[in-house]
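[step 3/7] inverse_fold.run input=structure_tokens len=96
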């Protein structure tokens, strides 16, 4: 029981810590927008390769997005591994 509580606390810490660590210090005078680059020609779907290269780690396609994807993928793999492990233990305890 204690191990499960420690694992749950560690997971909660990992979930809550990255936003505090990765949040860049912003410029108070500059307006912050969350809208992406609007495509030219009036369409809502941009043409392939019509965007710009990421200039900052937080830009679309930047390093932070890549790290977030890898962390999320790792989390899914860990969860799947735990499910498989627990199901094998449960089947072994039942004698299958």
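[step 3/7] decode complete -> sequence:
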């Amino acid at each position: 029981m204690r191990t499960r509580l420690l694992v749950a606390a560690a997971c909660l810490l990992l979930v809550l810590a990255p936003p505090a660590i990765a949040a860049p210090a912003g410029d108070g005078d500059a307006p912050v927008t969350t809208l992406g680059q609007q495509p030219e020609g009036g369409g809502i779907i941009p043409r392939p390769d019509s965007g710009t290269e990421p200039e900052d780690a937080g830009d679309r396609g930047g390093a932070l997005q890549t790290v977030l994807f890898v962390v999320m993928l790792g989390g899914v793999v860990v969860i799947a591994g735990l499910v498989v492990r627990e199901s094998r233990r449960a089947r072994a305890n039942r004698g299958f």
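[step 4/7] annotate
The two ends are 25 Å apart (CA to CA).
Residues 26 and 71 are 24 Å apart (CA to CA).
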